[in-house]
Write a structure and sequence with these properties.
The chain is an all-alpha fold. It is built from ten helices and no strands. The chain has one domain. The N terminus is likely disordered.
Length: 245
């Protein structure tokens, strides 16, 4: 005789289809998606928002004040508690360009101005392509310079994503300062951004690789030389192909 309990089918997760043996799915972690009253839906929405905001705020603070820390945490496998590098750079970029747009195109600052010089005021997708090309080749150069460390190319790219995120985080501050003090004949306020970015890059590399300042500076110079040559060669080749086409 079949009992009532054995005749009932085992409930499954609506998200991944795995059998449920508790309040949460053992495979994906989702709770049973049963109909919910409005207050439960609102509570879960606030919990998700608070979790994301907590990681984002903590990530922005660590990015600004602890060079190389987020990269080191990522390389150690501690990734759930920190915002993903790609998501971080997207959020920071949105903040940077929003501030720049709010203060007007004439107050874009040195970092945005350099972006315009690099892209030559071309259409947005071409400018984005050039920026991605620069980051890609710089990561390759950094991988070559640090090849004895055993770090993979992707791991070098993560460090550069964090450095670029810091640059985008620095840009709105520069824009605001230039809007408050627009009459800067020497351009010294804007020019401070690049040295700060360079120092940040060096400190981040020291944090990750634990090398001396002198050795790190030498490696950075070598990376810049290799990356600059690679970018110029790539752009020259693309221009030549365009002319032939």
């Amino acid at each position: 005789m079949t009992t009532a309990s054995s005749s009932q089918a085992q409930p499954t997760c609506e998200n991944c289809g795995a059998e449920l043996f508790g309040p949460f799915c053992a495979e994906c972690g989702q709770a049973p998606a049963s109909p919910q009253p409005l207050w439960v839906f609102l509570r879960e929405s606030l919990e998700e928002l608070a979790s994301l905001d907590g990681r984002l705020i903590r990530g922005l603070k660590d990015l600004a004040l602890r060079p190389g820390y987020l990269t080191e945490e990522y390389l150690r496998g501690r990734r759930v508690t920190h915002i993903h590098p790609v998501r971080l750079i997207i959020v920071v970029s949105l903040i940077a360009y929003s501030v720049s747009a709010a203060f007007g195109p004439d107050q874009s600052g040195l970092l945005f101005g350099l972006t315009g010089i690099l892209t030559g005021d071309r259409p947005g997708w071409i400018g984005l392509f050039i920026v991605v090309l620069i980051l890609t080749l710089t990561a390759a150069a950094q991988r070559l310079v640090y090849w004895r460390s055993g770090r993979l190319y992707v791991e070098q790219a993560v460090l550069l994503l964090h450095v670029t995120s810091f640059a985008m985080l620095l840009a709105p501050i520069e824009v605001v300062v230039l809007s408050v003090l627009p009459d800067d004949p020497t351009g010294s306020l804007g020019a401070v951004a690049l040295p700060i970015l360079g120092v940040y890059w060096v400190l981040a590399l020291r944090k990750v690789y634990s090398e001396s300042l002198t050795l790190t500076l030498g490696r950075v110079v070598l990376v810049v030389i290799l990356a600059t040559g690679a970018v110029l060669a790539a752009l020259t080749g693309l221009v030549a192909l365009g002319i032939r086409g």
